[in-house]
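Re-run with default settings, no changes from the original entry. Doing this only to confirm the output is reproducible before filing.
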Amino acid sequence: MRHIFLVIIALFLFFPFNSFAEVKEIISEGTYNMGDGETPTVAGDRALLQAKRTALEQAGTYVESYTKVKNYQLTEDEIKILASGIMEVTILDKKRTIVGDGLNFYVKIKAKVNPDNLEEMVKKVKDKSVVDDYKKIQADYDKSQREIEELKKQLAQAKNEGEKKQVEAKITNEDKRFQAIDWFEKGYQHTLKKEHDSAIEAYTNAIAIDPNYAYAYNNRGNAYGNKGQNDRAISDFQKNCDMGDKDGCEMVGKLTNSR
């Protein structure tokens, strides 16, 4: 009996606490009303974003409690990045219903928060560039939401067909910008997990939608650099530099001199 007790104690001492951490599951919902000029795909993605953000609030609370037990010193932004990095999302339900002259998109998700890889992620979120990228992504999403709501109002107030077409063209461009941000975020999440090939693919998709997406060139350049593909990295950093980013110019110089 004493031998069994000692074995149990040894397990707790030598196995990481993470192995016994609870996996939390969160159910959340999101909705979005699509107006004229918007595409169903992006409308569905906007509803999904709302559901993810709702889940992230709960995931952040869970991660904050867990990190306090582990005595990590983290900022609010770092906690959110941690939560988003370890949160796996599964879509449970999607619906479209007609509301007036438009469509309402509904999505229900299950977000699973597994803290097994938390310690490794904590080191990454201490990188200032990781926090800056996260803040930029969220700011871009917020800006896109404000812009699309304002354009919907302008469309409703359009006095003639010409004005209506002009506003609808702006809505189409805003939809594309949202898609580019979405792909950039996917690349960012892959970067956090050191999935460089998947990150490059996501950043490439963002650039294909928005060829002037300076940050996407910068992050894809970093991903190429992490794979040792310096020529491609220099090419991306040069494009980033040409768009006025000093960091991109510095990276071109560093990589060129390191040859």
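The chain is about 70% helix and 15% strand. The first strand starts at residue 24 and ends at 34.
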